[in-house]
Amino acid sequence: MEYSFNHQYHYPYVFLNDEPFTDEFKEWTSNVVSSKVEYGVIPHDHWYQPDHIDEDKARANRDAMVRNGVIYGGSVSYRNMCRFNSGFFFRHNLLQKYRYYWRVEPGVEFFCDVDEDPFVFLQENNKVYGFTISMYEYESTVQTLWETTKEFIKENPQYVANDNALGFLSDDADGESYNLCHFWSNFEIADMDFWRSEAYMKYFEYLDSKGGFYYERWGDAPVHSIGVGLFARKDQIHFFKPIGYRHEPFQHCPQGDIHRKGKCWCDQRDNFDYQP
Question: What is the residue-wise DSSP string for 53-86?
């Protein structure tokens, strides 16, 4: 990130964790970046399983997922993370002064020089969400997410945007079923004012009240994707094709002239976009 992009722009970094960062971590991270760094602790209620969840029911469902070999099926902390990223990160005190963000996960790789400022691009083109990789979700983790979404839309039709991206989310003209497509949200460059909007906040609160983050394993990727797919116009969603990116085990590697112009060092044959 620093080598590929931020050494030119010096945007601040914000690190968030459910417990205080060590002095060693703060010293190391602040020494390797070229800009201001802030470190925050996530409020307890934004991270931990809420009191309205029936833990016996949640535990039974986790155990069933473990028996069925569902990835992270038994993890409460993973569910905490998904719920936090779905509905709380943009509410953190340290982020209130910002509108746009670039989500960066531990261990990811960026393969190309990013010379065009993606934040300026979003602002100048009225985009609210940018991605590099899209894929299918595990059906067993979101069994009731779409039905719950349809219930919300039935009660709140005013929030659905004209010319939205329903066609990305459903193969049915009327949106009867969810095709499991989602933007892989470990990479996001997006507008937090969209997440802070009445439409998305009401949607998240509705989802949270149903308990699916814990009774199933609703991820922030399908939740964000459905939210932006329904409440934004499809022309407000952007594929950052020139940004080479890897989060194990998948990567987006720009192709052809874009690869050359970006001085990318990823193998063009290893590109999730074009895998059957």
Answer: S-HHHHHHHHHHHHHTT-TTTT-HHHHHHHHHHH
Starting at the earlier edge strand, list the strands of the sheet with 188-191: 100-103, 188-191, 129-131, 237-239
- The pLDDT profile of the chain, 276 residues, written as one tens digit per residue, is 998 999 999 999 999 999 999 999 999 999 999 999 999 999 999 999 999 999 999 999 999 999 999 999 999 999 999 999 999 999 999 999 999 999 999 999 999 999 999 999 999 999 999 999 999 999 999 999 999 999 999 999 999 999 999 999 999 999 999 999 999 999 999 999 999 999 999 999 999 999 999 999 999 999 999 999 999 999 999 999 999 999 999 999 999 999 999 999 999 999 998 654
Match 């409460």 to its residue by tokens.
Answer: 76
Of the candidates 156, 166, 155, the residue with the CA atom closest to the CA atom of residue 197: 156
What would you report as the CA-atom Rg of the chain, rounded to the nearest whole angstrom? 19
User: Tokens standing for 244?
Assistant: 């080479």
d(CA 262, CA 98): 28
Look at the alpha carbons of 115, 118, 124, 127 in this order and tell me if their dihedral is positive or negative. Answer: positive
Residues noted as catalytic: 188
Report the DSSP pairing between strands 250-252 and 245-247. Answer: antiparallel
Alpha carbon distance 242, 130 (integer Å): 12
